[in-house]
């Protein structure tokens, strides 16, 4: 959906380096999420935010931190990237978009991260 | 914690035929939401259909419909008149409506659907 963008879309980095992924929304929704997708696991929640400066951990939060200083931006940081963090990362927002049903999550296009 | 199980890692269907994808879930809650998302090769997660647990009527969106069996905790997706563009990974997902929760989605591991011409 055009209302959710992620940057970068692809990134290759080395073990031990910090990495920050950005999610930007234009829908003014309160809830934002970061998921990772790995083969055989579907999508798993890393962290979520329920407002500016309000964040909490999800199922697989170890090694990740997040920040939300503005409604529209939700940042995911890998403080020291490891090969196990090679994955596809999705941002999502929760709410109504483009006349669709409420209480539904809509996803960004994803970021493919490779940690060498 | 809720769990979602998709027991069919792969399925195939002939173009114009009908296929049903299975999903079961485990929860102690009585009110919740269920979703099917489609992920084509582009990786974009696309909402296909959703169902509120308090509604007995099965949701329908054009060629897509669900068979929601609350007592059995089953939520299958039926795709009628399959088209080549339906080829994708399909994920079943559960969401609790509880106000104290993150409203997060719990996903199954996915079913890869191939449509044969």
List keywords for this structure.
heterodimer; A: 116 residues; mainly beta; 0% helix; 57% strand; globular; B: 117 residues; six-stranded mixed β-sheet; 50% strand
Order of helices and strands of chain A: EEEEEEEEEEE
How would you describe the shape of chain B? globular
Low-confidence stretches of chain A: none
Percentage beta strand of chain A: over 45%
Kindly state the number of beta strands of chain B: 12
H-E order of chain B: EEEEEEEEEEEE
Hey, roughly how much beta strand do the residues of chain B contain? over 45%
Helical stretch tally of chain B: 0
Distance between the termini of chain A: 30 Å
Helical fraction of chain A equals under 10%
Characterize the main sheet of chain A.
7 strands, mixed
What does this 3D model show about the protein?
The complex is a heterodimer of chains A (116) and B (117). Chain A is built from no helices and eleven strands. Chain A has 116 residues and is an all-beta fold. In chain A, strands 2, 4, 5, 6, 9, 10 and 11 form a seven-stranded mixed sheet that branches. In chain A, strands 1-3-8-7 form a four-stranded antiparallel sheet, with no helix packed on it. In chain A, strand 4 and strand 5 (42-51) form a beta hairpin. Chain A is globular and about 40 Å long. Chain B has 117 residues and is an all-beta fold. Chain B is 0% helix and 50% strand. Chain B is built from no helices and twelve strands. The model of chain B has no long low-confidence stretch (mean pLDDT 92). The chains are: A mainly beta (116), B mainly beta (117).
Which secondary structure elements does this structure contain, and how are they paired or packed?
The complex is a heterodimer of chains A (116) and B (117).
Chain A lengths: L3 E4 L2 E4 L5 E7 L5 E8 L3 E10 L2 E4 L6 E7 L2 E6 L8 E8 L10 E3 L3 E5 L1
Parallel strand pairs in A: 2-11
Antiparallel strand pairs in A: 1-3, 3-8, 4-5, 4-9, 5-6, 7-8, 9-10, 9-11
Chain B lengths: L2 E3 L4 E5 L4 E3 L2 E3 L6 E7 L6 E7 L7 E2 L2 E6 L4 E6 L8 E8 L9 E3 L3 E6 L1
